[in-house]
């Protein structure tokens, strides 16, 4: 395709998305390479410059895991959620709020846009309560597991985001929430992004991760388009496992609540974010109602 054709293919999308809100979830597995992370940030800044309201929610699971291991702690997950004791919560806050959030804000500044870093604690953005015990099947026995300081989001107050977006900032959000007594809770970043997209009435939710999209059981094919009911069946059938569970559930919640489409895209391939948004074929999985 000629270079001018590439630009012309993007034009109707740029027109359609102008002034619309897009929530981009940057997964920890899509941030392991500094150069790739920079590419993603460049894409996000470009979206801002073509007139979209861009909100970034980031994870950092692999870095939290690495820090825990370095401190002699064994990470454990239930359905993609990290069991979080007090020390783990402190590690998660240090990594997510202290390190990753700050790093992304600086990268955006380097790319010529303005960002403000937040966690769910700021401006009561994410109010949560401690998550109920989770049922886990071990062999034939079903057990109940306490996930510790892990939160279930009860309320989202997007006011602070509206203020920042109106002033042209890109809000960058770390997935830590606050409970009604002022205590912090660890939130899965996919869930946080989906709740924020829903509360903002976003046009799109884009999940950047380390796979090309939602795949079938033997991982031989990608689903480029999924409907809500198909995604439900895939979860019931156990085709979706681990970290993909909160991701797809989040996308389903968002789409079920009015977000037009939710996308799962490989963030480790250069400029995939732009290709998913501005080309006819797209590159990942698009979930719609
Ligand atoms: N059906 C599926 N299709 C694609 N990926 C899946 C599926 N089920 C589970 N996964 C896993 O989900 C992972 C992405 O989730 P996660 O590790 O939490 O990423 P992130 O850190 O980007 O949020 C993939 O690397 C893949 O191993
Ligand atoms: C409760 C819970 O699981 N919280 C996550 C928060 C970070 C996250 O979700 O990071 P990714 O997007 O990279 O997976 C965790 O501790 O890993």
What does this structure look like?
With 289 residues, this protein is an alpha/beta fold. Strand 11 and strand 12 (184-186) form a beta hairpin. It has helices at 3-17, 34-49, 61-70, 86-110, 159-166, 189-200, 228-236, 244-256, 272-278; strands spanning 21-26, 53-58, 77-78, 81-82, 115-119, 126-130, 134-138, 141-145, 151-156, 170-174, 176-178, 184-186, 204-209, 225-227, 261-266, 285-288. 46% of the residues are buried. The two termini are 32 Å apart. It is 40% helix and 25% strand. Bound molecules: adenosine-5'-diphosphate and N-acetyl-L-glutamyl 5-phosphate (X2W). Adenosine-5'-diphosphate binds at residues 27-30, 59, 61, 80, 190, 209-211, 214-215, 239-244, 247.
Write the layout of secondary structure elements.
Layout: H1 3-17, E1 21-26, H2 34-49, E2 53-58, H3 61-70, E3 77-78, E4 81-82, H4 86-110, E5 115-119, E6 126-130, E7 134-138, E8 141-145, E9 151-156, H5 159-166, E10 170-174, E11 176-178, E12 184-186, H6 189-200, E13 204-209, E14 225-227, H7 228-236, H8 244-256, E15 261-266, H9 272-278, E16 285-288
Parallel strand pairs: 1-2, 1-13, 2-10, 5-10, 13-15, 14-16
Antiparallel strand pairs: 3-4, 6-9, 7-8, 11-12, 15-16
N-acetyl-L-glutamyl 5-phosphate binds next to helix 3 and strand 4.
């Amino acid at each position: 395709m000629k270079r001018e054709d590439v630009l012309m293919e993007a034009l109707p999308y740029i027109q359609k998305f102008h002034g619309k809100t897009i929530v981009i979830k940057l997964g920890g597995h899509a941030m392991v390479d500094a150069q790739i992370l920079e590419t993603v940030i460049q894409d996000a800044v470009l979206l801002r410059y073509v007139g979209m309201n861009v909100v970034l929610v980031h994870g950092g699971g692999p870095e939290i895991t690495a820090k825990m291991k370095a401190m002699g702690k064994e990470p454990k997950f239930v359905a993609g959620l990290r069991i979080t004791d007090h020390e783990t919560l402190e590690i998660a806050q240090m990594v997510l709020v202290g390190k990753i959030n700050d790093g992304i804000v600086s990268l955006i500044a380097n790319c010529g846009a303005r960002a403000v870093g937040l966690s769910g604690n700021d401006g009561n953005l994410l109010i949560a309560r401690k998550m109920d015990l989770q049922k886990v099947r071990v062999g034939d026995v079903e057990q109940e597991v306490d996930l510790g300081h892990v939160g279930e989001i009860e309320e989202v107050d997007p006011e602070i985001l509206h203020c920042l977006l109106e002033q042209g900032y890109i809000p960058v959000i770390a997935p830590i929430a606050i409970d009604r007594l002022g205590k912090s809770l660890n939130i899965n970043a996919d869930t946080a992004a989906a709740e924020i997209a829903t509360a903002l009435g976003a046009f799109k939710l884009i999940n950047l991760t380390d796979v090309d999209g939602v795949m079938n059981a033997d991982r031989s094919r990608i689903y480029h388009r999924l409907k809500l009911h198909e995604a439900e069946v895939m979860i019931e059938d156990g085709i979706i496992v681990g970290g993909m569970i909160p991701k797809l559930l989040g996308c389903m919640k968002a789409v079920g609540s009015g977000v037009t489409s939710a996308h799962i895209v490989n963030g480790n391939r250069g400029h995939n974010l732009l290709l998913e948004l501005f080309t006819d074929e797209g590159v990942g999985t698009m979930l719609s109602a």
